[in-house]
Amino acid sequence: MLTLEHVTKVFTITDGSSLETIRDISLTVPEREFVAFVGPSGCGKTTLLKLIAGLEKPTQGRIVFEGRDVSSTNRERGMVFQEFALFPWLTVSDNIAFGLRLRKENNEKIDSVVSRYLKLTSLEQFKDSYPHTLSGGMQQRVAIARTLANKPKILLLDEPFGALDTQTRSHMQEFLSDLWEEEHKTVVLVTHDIGEALFLSDTVYILSSRPTIIRGKFDVTFDRPRKHELKFSSAFLHMKKEISDLF
Amino acid sequence: MSVSRILIGFAIATVLGVPVGILIGLSKQAESFIEPMIDFIRYTPIPAFIPLFILWFGVGELEKIIVIASSVFFQIVLMAANSVSLTPRPLIESALTLGVIRWQVVTKVIYPFSRPRILDDLRVSMGWAWAVLTIAEIVGATSGIGFVIIQSQRLLQTARVMAAIIVVGCLGILSDALFKWLYRTYFPWASRMGQYVDA
Question: What is the pTM of this model?
Answer without folding.
Answer: 0.83
